[in-house]
Design a protein that fits this description.
Blueprint lengths: L10 E5 L4 E4 L3 E7 L3 E7 L4 E7 L17 H14 L8 E6 L12 H17 L2 E7 L4 E7 L5 E6 L8 H6 L1
Parallel strand pairs: 1-3, 6-7
Antiparallel strand pairs: 2-5, 3-8, 4-5, 4-6, 8-9
Helix pairs in contact: 1-2
Length: 174
């Protein structure tokens, strides 16, 4: 990853699950994904953008509860608020989706969560009017994601699971 040397003036943000960030060309955003999904949004002319790292597609939100970045629908709504604050529109942004990896082999241990996260991400970027430029989703294992807002480039390092990675439930049933 030596190609990822950042200019000295650039701030680096690391997103934990449920977090998001929107910034300018002086920003690099990183995250580590398993079954979660990250969506990057980039405005090629203005060199602004952001990333969210959500854990689940959605929740039933009660009246008056604040938006929560742990849920895909709410994380994208939060990013759209940031976009609107810059007097730009979602259709001006390029979207890229990453993650949704299965973290255990076999059919158990929340096998539906990664697939539901991917489907939600695709639906949400389309619903908001973003232009999807790329995605690397599904499969198994985790991903490191690095997004340089100054260029719009996103680097992904995918680490597949070892052959015998089983969840605790499956091992106890065997």
């Amino acid at each position: 990853m030596s190609l990822l040397k950042k200019p000295a003036h650039v701030i680096e943000i690391f997103l934990q699950p449920g977090e998001l960030w929107f910034g300018d060309a002086n920003t690099r955003i990183r995250t580590l994904l398993g079954s979660c999904v990250a969506v990057t949004l980039w405005h090629p002319r203005r060199r602004i953008g952001g990333m969210c790292h959500y854990m689940l597609p959605e929740r039933i939100r009660g009246t008056g509860k604040p938006l929560d970045g742990r849920y895909g629908d709410e994380a994208l709504d939060m990013l759209v608020k940031e976009i609107r604050a810059t007097y730009s529109s979602p259709h001006e942004y390029e979207a890229k989706l990453f993650g949704g990896g299965h973290m255990f082999t076999g059919g158990g241990c929340g096998a539906q969560v990664p697939d539901r996260n991917i489907a939600a991400g695709r639906k949400l970027v389309q619903r908001h009017g973003f232009k999807v430029k790329a995605e690397q989703v599904g499969g198994n294992g985790h991903r490191q994601v690095v997004f340089d807002i100054w260029s719009g480039h996103v680097w992904v390092k995918h680490a597949p699971l070892p052959e015998k990675t089983h969840c605790q439930i499956e091992e106890s049933e065997a």
